[in-house]
Amino acid sequence: MADQPQIPASLRTEFGKGAARRIRRDDKIPAVLYGSGTDPVHLTLPGHETMLATKVDNALLELDIEGSKQLALVKDVQRDPIKPIIEHVDLVVVKRGEKVTVEVAVTVTGEAAPETVVTTENNTLEIEAVATNIPEVLEVSVEGAEAGTQILAAQVEMPEGSTLASDPELLVVNVTQALSEQALEAELEAAEAEAGIEKDESDEESGGAAEGGSEGASEESSDSE
């Protein structure tokens, strides 16, 4: 993990939705800093710097709270579903050298064997890592992997200083056989046949109704004569 971004922060005494809206109108972000055995600290963070710093998961920030330095891990970022703004940030106090448990994204690298399909069954894994050395991603290589290959959490290589916290038997990546052209054609034919049966049935019903209507019309014509 790169050097921690330094973010100036100020203590806030106003709370509630109205106060939060006023803070965001000033291009700032309301935040809460949680610490072990201490009361939550309500903060106001600068909008632009915080937006840049929280683009990565598990961002580690060095807060300057009115002259007092504090290392903090970003635990949750609430974003507006429409506008590109952050509504609120939850932070946790950490110390240098302290280990924390976080979720890290899984990324698949390499090319599996021909005619296979690679499926990522779990996109993140929970690990324990030093707060100042949290990996951004966990790489899983499928280079040359044959159909039937299954990569479990225990088989994912952990970066130095990190240990797995998720269930070791958790399925992370699954490599299966791709459908052959013949199999695809067979599925297509089966689908077409099923659609054809449904169509034939509807045609028979509509045909029967048309015949019935035609007979009725003939009888009416005969009666009128």
Task: Write a short abstract of this structure.
By secondary structure, this protein is of the alpha+beta class.
Account of the 3D structure:
With 225 residues, the chain is of the alpha+beta class. The protein folds into 3 domains: 6-94, Ribosomal Protein L25, Chain P; 100-177, RNA Polymerase Alpha Subunit, Chain A, domain 2; 180-225. Helix content is 27%, strand content 40%. The strands form 3 sheets. It has a 6-stranded mixed beta barrel. A 4-stranded mixed sheet has the order 10-7-9-12, with no helix packed on it. Strand 2 and strand 3 form a beta hairpin. The model has no long low-confidence stretch (mean pLDDT 84).
Beta-strand residue percentage? 35-45%
Q: Helical stretch count?
A: 3
Total domain units: 3
CATH fold-type name of the largest domain? Ribosomal Protein L25, Chain P
